[in-house]
Amino acid sequence: MIKIYCSTAFKSILPSLLDTFEKIHGVSASVEFGTTNHMLNLIHQGDSADLMILTHEAINALIDTGYCKKGSLKDLCKTSIGMAIAADAVKPDIQNTAGFIQAILDTPSITFTSKGASGVYFRNLVERLNLLDKILPKAVIPEGGLVAELILSGKAHMAIQLISEIKAVPQVQLVGPLPEEINQTTLFTAGIGINSTESEASENLCHFLSNSSNQSLLIEKGLNPV
Fold first, then answer.
1. Is residue 226 predicted with pLDDT exceeding 90?
2. Contacts (Cβ under 8 Å, ≥6 apart) of 64
């Protein structure tokens, strides 16, 4: 069995892909999802996995520090940050920065993660826009997880997160990506653990995940192949 540490960005698609992989190759996998920062903390505390699917920068760092095998890096796909609201809410126009700013000012409450890549970026963006004092008092900020779920539970009216993570909560409405001039694209990469006992199976899984036959499904879930 392949043990995988994986970014929440893949939560909407990885389980079904792993089912297909098992049917083809006869190899099963167990997955723990979380923010890249959470997974890095686990690894640095002594935990390990056969395969890590995290941000490109994180996998590079794990290779440099001896936690991932050199030469095992495999870029998989990329995604950007989006906005979500309730399915029946009026969709704001966020095609430009001015519209985006108005939308986050108008919403009664907003949620983003404190440790996920998109949440960290969004907080820094709001600070650069000099809006932190207006956004933080109405913000719900969990460490990680699918923050669009907080819209369903009534804890927030708007969510900011990677588009693939928003699409993992299909009951909400994806407004769209943040305007290009203030958005950030995140590249996700796989790396094989230095102590992996399933190196060959993990390598086969990497090739399977990046196979062209899965591209349409990746795109549907907000992940763009590289």
1. no
2. none
